[in-house]
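Practice record 12: protein with uridine-diphosphate-N-acetylglucosamine.
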Amino acid sequence: MNTESSGRDPAQDRPCRLLHVVGARPNYMKVAPIMAAVDAEVARGGPVAFEQLLVHTGQHYDRALSELFFEELGLPRPDVNLGVGSGSHARQTARIMEAFEPVLESYQPDLVIVVGDVNSTLACALDARKLGIPVAHVEAGLRSGDMSMPEEINRRATDAIVDLLFTTDRIADACLRREGIDPAAIHRVGNVMIDSLLHHREKALSRPTLGLHELLDGAGQPIPYAVVTLHRPGNVDVAETLHAIGSALAKLGESMPVIFPVHPRARARISEFGLDGLFSRENGIRLIEPAGYLDFMNLVAHARLVLTDSGGIQEETTILGVPCLTLRDNTERPITLEQGTNRLVGNRTEAIVAGIEAVLSDRAPDPCFPELWDGHAGERIVRAIVAWWSQATRAEGVPQAERRASVGVESGA
Ligand code: UD1
């Protein structure tokens, strides 16, 4: 390309090579809007030429947890799949690190972008930093304060070593500042998961709701129902806790159908602990296969309430105006308690039932849109990377450690 006609500074005209990492189900809807925003920037002939590569670590590998999402979100097929699969935390993290290092050495990215808080996030950030490659973390600064959650360890460790920290809200910014992170490296950009939700909302809402007969009355009219998701080790790996949650769901099942798309880990534990009778149709609980993105958003959008231990669903229900009971004692997403539809109820039967009663006696809440959760977070991330890259190339020759993301980029649209 003719650099003069493109308006680029010839000294900075080498393409900026981005490497995106995905590993597990909640990562795909975060990466899709960023890659789309980079493509849009390239198409518009912006000041920086980008190349991008997508690496799937293979942490999730079932079609229902992986491939289907690529199709629905319009994500390009991964350029590289590390195929690491399941294992203990140590083994999985170590396998990802071992397999990712040669990819970094051969592709030589200028920036590695990791999202969320799964084992793939931390493993790839560590690899890149140890090779002196700058790293950006999307969804930085979320803190539950609960170090028994593997995700909390992943979040804290990742944020401590990366160069660019993209946050969803002011509470996350404050957490990072308290931990001594350089404020110039923190960029509040909004929520990329909500970019995906708003982008696919119409398509998701106009689908038929999974064709479940439980969701219709005798005259074929839709009836109120609840949606459940569970996968945290703290909830599903302890028999008494899983039993306590199942008992609350069975109580709810007396008044409305409870639809439970089951994560493989939860399904295995239900059988292992002899709880198939509790989580059963007789108790109003319908176990279904993990749903794809569009079907799941449809199911949630039309639900009377959602009970979950997921992180992202607390945010999605906030935007959709659906009450959410979070079956945990803490959340790394407190903004959804302050401004959204989320309530923390823990995992004891009585507390969950009390939460259900409170929700059902209230009118359905209105959707809430925390600041910058407006569908444009991906574009803000690209603008911040353009500013960072322009400064980094100007400082070429300066050791990477010294140019730790000191570019101030305004948040706001
Ligand atoms: C992982 C993330 C969690 C995220 C969740 C979303 C970590 C520490 N945890 O948890 O933050 O919310 O993904 O689903 O990274 N399995 C399959 N098929 C698969 C993948 C897993 O059957 O495609 C089964 C295996 O038995 C595996 C178990 O699920 O051992 C757990 O999978 P793993 O990736 O270790 O963690 P998740 O519980 O899915």
